[in-house]
Structures are given as structure tokens and as C-alpha cells.
Amino acid sequence: MRIEKHPILTFEEKKILHFTFNHQSMTGFEGDTIQSALHANGIKKLSESIEHHRPRGFYCAIGNCASCDMTVNNQPNVRTCITMLEEGMVVLSQKGKGVL
Amino acid sequence: MMTEKELIIIGGGPAGLCAANSAAESGVKVLILERSPRLGGQLIKQTHKFFGSEKTYAKTRGFDIAKLLIDDVLNLSDNIEILCDATVVGLYPNHEITVYQKGIYQKYKAKSIIVATGASEKFLAFENNDLPGIYGAGAVQTLMNLYGVIPGQSIVMVGSGNIGLIVSYQLIQAGVKVKALVEAAPKIGGYLVHASKLRRLGVPIYTSTTIKRAIGKESVEQVETISLNEKWEMVPGTEQIIDVDAICISVGLSPLHQLLSMANVEMKYVNELGGMVPIVTEEHETSYKNLFVAGDVIGIEEASSAIIEGYLVGLIASKRLGKSHPNYETLIQAYHDQLTNLRSGPFGAKTRIGLAKLRGENHA
After folding, report:
1. Predicted complex ipTM
2. Any idea what the CATH number is for the domain that residue A86 is in?
């Protein structure tokens, strides 16, 4: 779901980065946030709500609402909308509050 | 360990950047703390051309304005230090600040602080409003215009203020089908020039209509809309189901006041300004001495106003530190005039009323 043609913006070709989401291999681009890379791969459900286990996606994309929190490289509660994607990242849907 | 600084600016958006600029030009050493990986605030994802006067970059696209403001600050690197990925998590009396950056907490103490945290998007209550696929308008802009990813194939926009109208148009530019725009009020909220553009492109705009619920399992599959009567009550029998894989919420912004509230600054709820705002003097100083505010954190307006307020407050805070800009008086007058100009006319009424309420003045 990347934009291919745009009347105003140009999206240059960027370096491909590899990462995993729930043990599944995926790719994103350098300059992506974890969340934008997931979205480009068609992943909208990032985690589940703590109490009722309802699906959670991102909402604000500026690090404010905490709806996109995931476990990244073993660290829970990472705001994936403002954390840049890095090569080899291990990204997991978070269940519960997370343990450090 | 506590690091001491002369002036700390919280927020690297238009207000914060411009405040840093005029403070650095006054000879003050500045530290900008920015939560996101890059400077520019919300301007960096705005592809539309701005209205307003030439002094506030009219006819320039938002992301180009951001580039200009960022370049200005980078050119003053002798006096301006920048930390990105740096979230301020604590603002305490005695001008102490705790910053979280890449897993590490650091403490700073400043002689003066300017809070320019901006705003966050309001949310709307409806059934299933927590489903993935429901995004704030700013989030949609970030995803599309910054990262080149579309939020979905088809979308319904909720809210017809300027942001709702402009982002609908941007969605179409990115190749997304905007199936409808719904507005709870009986009238379109934003400029008609934007609304007409959408109508010409065949987007239906339903006024007196709201969203009743989102439908979907793991993410949005459909949206149910419903008409409202003159008492804003839902009218049974007017429901309409639209197939979409995304919903965009554009129902306004509220100031990011949390740090100020944390510091126990005197606050007031002013609906016209977007929510909780700090009570300030003419000089944009809060009830805490040498704790200033600029931009949307003191009332939701356009980026143009945030730019001018930033320049203005940067000058004032510097003077208080004993470093007056050589053209202080002239510049202050000019910025006040520009703000008055930006807030004149019918679209500035809300801000004018809000500021009067904040000052405790009576108004009609």
C-alpha cells in the first residue's frame, strides 16, 4: 500500500531493511517508522488491548496516544509510530502491560 | 547528573523553531527538545499551500515552510543545540526537566523555559471507535505524506473543518477513494474553496450527519452513518452503511497541556482555544516566572500564528535573561501587528473570543 504516483510528492528509492513481525519476515525502507513499514505490509492490527484483548492499531502517529505500543527487540511499550525501523528488528504484538 | 542550560524550548515545531531562532539571534544559548525523530512538527507532512500573509509564508507548501524554518535554526548552530527522539517526561518547579532519550533519563535545569508542545487530535465517541483502521487526520497525513503509505483503499472522513477538507483532498491525490465526508453541524466548517474542490471531484458531503459505529473484526470493514436533527439527536431510520477499510477523524485539536498541568501552572478550560490552556500574561508568561508558552499549546490556531508567536516569545524570554535583540521594540510591535492581522476576520473570531475568556474579559 505504498503510494506509487503523487502529483506533489516524490518518494525516492531507499535502502531495503529486513525485520520480523510476529516471527514473519518482512521488509521496509530506510526512513520508515516501524508502524509505517508494518502498514505498508498490510498490517493494521499491531497489538491487543490490555483488559479486553481488542485489536489495537495506531491512531495519532506522533507518539501521543500509545495505541501503537509493541514489543521491539524484547523491549515492551515501544511507540512504534515514532521509532525508526532498523535492520534486523524483532517486532512482536504486545499482550498485556509488558515486563522489562 | 543535572545539566544546566540558559533556555530550553520544549517542542521543535513551528513555534519552538521560531522561538529558538529569535532567542539565538538575541545571543541566548538554546536547547531544543523534540519528541519525534525530526524537527518541523506537523508542518513536515503538510503538502498544501498556506493562506495568510506573505510574511507568514502564504502560497508556500507546509513542508517547504518547515525546511526554511529548520534551515534557519541549523544556521544558528553556535547558539542552538538540538536533541531529537527526546521526550520531556517531567517538568518541575525550579525549571527542572526530565528527558527520556533512547532508553536513558537525563535531567536538565534551565534559567528559562518555553513550552511549545503544540496540540493533539481530539477523538470521537462511537461504537467500535478503537478498531484498527480509524485514524486521526494528522496521522493520515503523516503516513501518506511523510512515509508514502496510504491508510486504506477507501475511506470516510469525519469532520469538515479545514483539516478534514484538505486531508480529504490529499487522500485523493494519494489514490485513496474518499467515499463521503460527514459533518455533524448543519454547515461545512472550513473554507468553501476547499469544500468545492472536493465536490467537483465527486465526494459527497453530508452535513447534519455523524458516525454511529464502525463495523469490522480485526480492522474497519464498514462504517454506519446517521443523520442528526436540529437538536443534534440521531434520527432513526436514516442509517447508511458504507464499505470502507479506513475512517479518518478530523474533529479538532486540543492543546498538549500535560507538562504545564504537571508543573502546577495555573490553567483554565477555554472551549474556543481547544481545551485546557495556561493562564498567561501579555508576554506569554505562565503563573511560573520564566516559564513561557507559544503556539498551539495556548490555543489551537494555524501554523502561521504559531510561527509569529514563536518569534515573539523567543524575544521576550531572551530579554528577561538580560539579552535584548538589537531591534527588540520594532520586532515586538511587528509581531503583535501580524498576530492581530491573522486573528482578524470571521475565521479568527473563535481565537479572539477564546483569548478574551482566558484573560477573564466579558464578551458578547
Report:
1. 0.95
2. 3.10.20.440
